[in-house]
Fold these 3 entries.
Entry 1:
Amino acid sequence: MNFSDVKSLSNQYLMSTYNKFDISIEKGKDCTLYDINGKEYIDLTSGIGVNCLGHSNPIIVDAVKNQAQKLLHMSNLYYNENQAVLAEKLVKASNMKRVFFCNSGAEANEGAIKIARKYSTDKYKKDRTDIISLKMSFHGRTITTLSATGQDAMHEYFHPFTQGFVYSKANDIDDIKSKITDKTCAVMIELIQGEGGVVVLEKDFVKELYELCSQKDILLIADEVQTGIARTAKMFCFEHYDIIPDIVTLAKGLGGGFPIGAVLCSQKTENTLTASTHGTTFGGNPMACAVASAVVDEVCKKEFLEEVEKKGQYLKEKLSKVKNVINVRGKGLMIGFDVNNMKAIDVLNKCIENNLLILTAKNSLRLLPPLVISYSDIDKAVCILDKVINN
Ligand SMILES: *Cc1c(COP(=O)(O)O)cnc(C)c1O
């Protein structure tokens, strides 16, 4: 099929939930993508923070091939080695206690919300079920995770929403304090708000929030769906903040492109979910766990994490030197910036013309390159950005 065939077939038969850009990606190798016409792009998107080991990485290809020959799916009614092995790796890497596997970020957050409410109900009886989340947050597209998402624009349709969510300002401890009541059971945060515009939470704010939550036995849920699995040059972004959340959710990078999500629980909440209180058909299937296991082995290496840190610094420094680029921010290879002479979406569109894929987040630009990006691809990408912004 040529591009216009794909486009017209898509527009005829798919629900129009996305305003798509006019390209169709066919294949990729490392940090390079090829569209259906053979045009090459440098990928600074990783399919929105997913393909952390780049495209067609042999580590992932081999894991998929080997497992596909054995067993794709099996129910959670039986024990599974891949699941157990991956659970141990994630627990040891995070200092948490137990894992529940699912298939996506929204599902991981749904799980976290259920755990928080059950923990509180088990201990304090009913009416202690409110969850505070932050304005401009993004926690998913299900009815409950949309409720958790602190953006009015997301609450326009689909009423009635799940009750019990309260929104507070990011980086404003007094605002959170004023919203905590006897009914609060959890606070849910992204340590770096991804979709909200790459808003990095301040260390003092997070540490104070952590103390406050521990004092009041309010659970701190870290939505690390975008920040987790080495994206910020630590296995988990919470390591930058010297805290251990009560619940951590993961998805995007965990399977390196294969769908999988996870909820990690600390000692406090490790036994909250009991038989029949939660479940999933596909979650933790042998295929997803085999791939995620291979990804985790690779990205949790000390040298790998150090490289992500170095490349992140390098990319941020180069970007900061580009004329009209301002507010370069982020950690590791999760980077946001603004441009003071153009709209973000115009920069993005001109980048596509010039063989570079980047992301927007609200009115900012966002870069989530594969964590294995080479220095020469970083150089080329910044060169294209400079050309797009300043010519
Ligand atoms: C992407 C994202 C989600 C939703 O993940 P899905 O897999 O699309 O359901 C939730 N939280 C954060 C922080 C995200 O970036």
Entry 2:
Amino acid sequence: MQDTSLYRAWAEIDTDAMKHNLSVVRRVLPEHRQMAIVKAEAYGHGLEGVAKALDGEDIEFFGVATPAEAARIHALGCRKCPFILGPCFPAEREAIVQNGWRAALSSIEEAEHFNALGKLYGKKVNLHINVDTGMGRAGLLPHDIPSLADHLAPLEHLNIEGIFSHLSAAADDISFTHRQIESYEAAVAELAGKMQLPYRHLCSSSAVFNYTAPSTNMVRLGRILYGYSPMPSPYNRELRNTLTLYSRVTLLRTLPAQHGVSYNHTYITSGATKVATIGIGFGDGYLHYLSNTGARVYLNGSYCPVLGRVTMDQIMVDVSHIKGVQPGDVAEIMGPNVPWEELTARAKTIPSNVITSLTARVPRVYKA
Ligand SMILES: *Cc1c(COP(=O)(O)O)cnc(C)c1O
């Protein structure tokens, strides 16, 4: 493993834990194939490192947001094909067709353009029909589905490989989610007699353990792959943590009583206070919103409260209650002792926002 002794902040990534998390879902849904979502630096875990680690797993596709992310998977020489979840600009479609990447279909115009490119390059273009069952973000609307097969029939350079949709509130609105599932099932039933749809997928992390969509045969896994399940489930405790964020004490001082700490003095010492300066800040992705929220780090076996505001590169924590802290000591900033969810609640955001905020300055260290 790489030498971290001079790193101020780094993330240790456990790809075995990701493989384990995939296996938990595989055990619950043995008939379903899996798309591993690696968009946004694999939820902060590092796109290249994660794609390399998972390429040999029994997964079907790597889910990405953009052709630029697909190109990074491609450049690694992965055997698993990128699946571009979001809409693409016309100028991006040529690379999709030439490289055989999977793309989502939201309109007849897109289908016609892809077909023309397929003809030009002598390739079949693999597309998955996206049906907007309520997310309001992309896809064809359910009322476009009955006429779809007729529109697609003459486009002989397309291979309509699948049909999918995305749930908008699976963790929060069960009845609306059931309506989305029904709407998806209706779209599949409508098209099933008219075309082959080998891949049918709807559920992602908030739904895999809690809903069934009878016609589906693949799930798309983001958060669960990274150890976080958004909904209560007996399987949640089987998931393993995949990222631990560490930082080091860079300086140790004792400040006198009535001394302000950090910008604007939102914290003032009440008595003499042993303060450790730690080499992480919002420039690394430790959110400024964590200022004055009771946020804490885990250092030498105990919790130390963050004092005052988070700055760009450093935070200050109270270590008055622990003996023998030294510059260079390692604090856990996020991980088994300071869960993702704790930071999420304090910063009043969502878990994916915390994890994708980790910046390029934070080296990702892959556990051997
Ligand atoms: C990001 C994304 C996912 C992954 O969502 P998780 O809730 O993290 O599993 C799945 N499907 C689509 C279309 C997405 O954009």
Entry 3:
Amino acid sequence: MISFATLSGLSMLVNLISLAAAQSQQAFQFTTDDASVNDQWTTFPQRIERVAVIGAGPSGLQAATHLLAANLSIRLFERAPAPGGQWFYTEETPVREQYPETDARDTKIPPDILPATRYYEEGDGGISLDERWREHWHPRPVWYDLIANSPADKTRLPGVNYAPDAAWEVSVHDVQRNVRAYASLHRLNSNDNPISSHAPQITSYATRVESLHKGNETDTWTLKLHRLEWLPESKRLKAEWWTEEFDAVVVASGAFTEAKVPQIKGIGNWSKVKKDKKYSIYHAQSYRHPEPYTGKTVLIVGASVTATYLARSIAPFAGRLLCSVRPNQYRDALGWDILFRFPEKAEMIPEIESFQPLDDFTAGIKAGKINLVNGSAITEIDEIILATGYNTETFLPDLVKPRLPNSVYWTGHYMDDRPTLAYTLFNEPWRQGEYAGLGFARVWTGKARLPSRERMWVNMKSGKYNFGKAVDFLRQEGLCRMYVSWLNSEALEFGGQLVAPQLLERREIWNYWINTQHKKDFISHENWTRFEQLPFDEWPQPRYPSAKLVSW
Ligand SMILES: Cc1cc2nc3c(=O)[nH]c(=O)nc-3n(C[C@H](O)[C@H](O)[C@H](O)COP(=O)(O)OP(=O)(O)OC[C@H]3O[C@@H](n4cnc5c(N)ncnc54)[C@H](O)[C@@H]3O)c2cc1C
Ligand SMILES: NC(=O)c1ccc[n+]([C@@H]2O[C@H](COP(=O)([O-])OP(=O)(O)OC[C@H]3O[C@@H](n4cnc5c(N)ncnc54)[C@H](OP(=O)(O)O)[C@@H]3O)[C@@H](O)[C@H]2O)c1
Ligand SMILES: *[C@@H]1O[C@H](CO)[C@@H](O)[C@H](O)[C@H]1NC(C)=O
Ligand SMILES: *[C@@H]1O[C@H](CO)[C@@H](O)[C@H](O)[C@H]1NC(C)=O
Ligand SMILES: *[C@@H]1O[C@H](CO)[C@@H](O)[C@H](O)[C@H]1NC(C)=O
Ligand SMILES: *[C@@H]1O[C@H](CO)[C@@H](O)[C@H](O)[C@H]1NC(C)=O
Ligand SMILES: *[C@@H]1O[C@H](CO)[C@@H](O)[C@H](O)[C@H]1NC(C)=O
């Protein structure tokens, strides 16, 4: 077994320290008289009691569950009015994304003095109540007939199964129910009343975390919070701002937050065009149903999961379907296009060079000319959908902006500060989220150790802890092996239940899924068993370069 300590070449030290820790009254400080030993591990000067979790998606719900089980005092903040994260489907769509040459509308000016309460009426500040509400919680980029691109068995939370006769290609609605069921089961869903008459109030929906600051003198984090509430009888929105203090914070806010608009020449001009009061060019985040595309000529921009799945949704309805795809060295060289299948109806066209300016902004884009990089031009397009991905760096700007992928340890702990801040940005929250939640709870209650900040940086800079994108299946498996080894070896020292590795039969389900849904003979049982025989140093390297990993 690869234990965390032997990985760092410190097995001797570990024995020393575990002895010392066992003798100490408060294991969580790992204090001995030997300063060189203390230097090896992260220590927390104060007991961690109050923990905030930001986001009630698959990751945040699991973190909150394990932190609660460790008897920490938890608050769970979610900007949406319900749990589910990305899987919370609504007919509501996000506020329109930002295009070049369009002034940003700032609806977010908080009062100077907190706590504060304001009431908004229709049209206050030039913004409708509906838009103010949608800006606040940001409806999700999922559409009505979205089918998960992972098998049912791999797209559910621990302890919550789908119905025995459910299809194994699960719909967004099934996944939404699964996540909500988990939230209710663990008493985190405050919509599912009564939670418990004497339970402390844990979850606050429609509550957006606006900022996160660490005090200079204290080691506590201050969250600035903003909640909106509909007052239907008076047709108003009630807005509240306040702050709360925490000893530790888990940021589980997801990766696909802000729609990425490609900066193609002329796109600002076209973005203002409307037909029948609707924009003709928009990001995929607002796509909901295929029926309105009946008989239309639709252009989808992009070649990844959204572009291809959306193309399959629209294809049976559209008159003509064009897809603008640019070459991608990794996708093309590594065969990842197996994961991104366009329907037969899709006509592939090259990347767009520019949009020729339009004079009339009310008649749609049909007469407009789109220049392609190969020198030709296309016209007669009814609607353009930008399936061009998402930016992650949208909230908590003061912290997130300087964040690099490598400022977060492989366990999720933030290394630029004392690691009482942690992120849950995993490719596979369904199985890694539980381990991560246990890791946060145990580190913060003194039942698992983290190396000192210096050692964490050394480990991360060595490059060993890059687990790749979701498509790096074996490397992702490696992350789970790391967790199981670390959590269990620490549990032997400090107590705590052992965690189970992934069930072996789940691999076969996954193999079958990939090989039948995507590419024949892509992966076999042998790949996994061979991987298991490899020492850590020989694990296959991620196949995407790390610069490409910033998707989280
Ligand atoms: C269109 C689409 C399809 C996908 N399909 C699949 C699939 O088939 N299979 C799969 O495994 N994965 C899929 N994913 C990935 C998906 O993101 C994960 O399955 C999963 O939802 C990630 O869980 P999470 O909890 O980390 O983040 P999320 O589910 O994104 O949840 C984050 C939560 O944090 C909240 N939040 C963010 N900022 C704040 C704030 N400032 N204050 C308060 N709350 C905040 C958000 O409202 C959100 O509810 C898909 C993603 C997209 C966009
Ligand atoms: N059914 C499902 O389960 C499902 C559906 C949708 C999304 N998802 C998930 O959602 C996440 C986001 O996926 P996504 O597809 O929205 O984003 P993405 O993976 O970031 O893909 C964005 C795509 O847009 C392309 N692009 C960007 N600018 C372009 C331009 N100017 N011209 C042409 N192409 C351009 C990119 O090309 P380059 O690669 O060359 O940059 C890429 O192909 C993923 O995790 C995915 O798995 C899942
Ligand atoms: C949490 O508190 C309860 C009640 O005091 C106790 O029974 C339980 O053992 C505690 N759990 C942990 C992990 O400390
Ligand atoms: C914390 O200290 C830094 C540097 O001394 C200072 O710039 C900053 O204003 C202080 N912040 C607060 C909230 O006191
Ligand atoms: C450019 O691409 C378009 C769309 O695929 C195609 O019809 C056209 O023939 C191409 N032109 C050249 C010069 O290759
Ligand atoms: C778009 O381009 C046309 C033609 O150059 C110009 O008349 C119009 O003002 C532009 N509109 C905007 C909003 O940029
Ligand atoms: C599985 O192993 C085969 C044979 O070594 C290899 O060609 C293939 O790339 C592996 N598949 C994956 C997904 O790593």
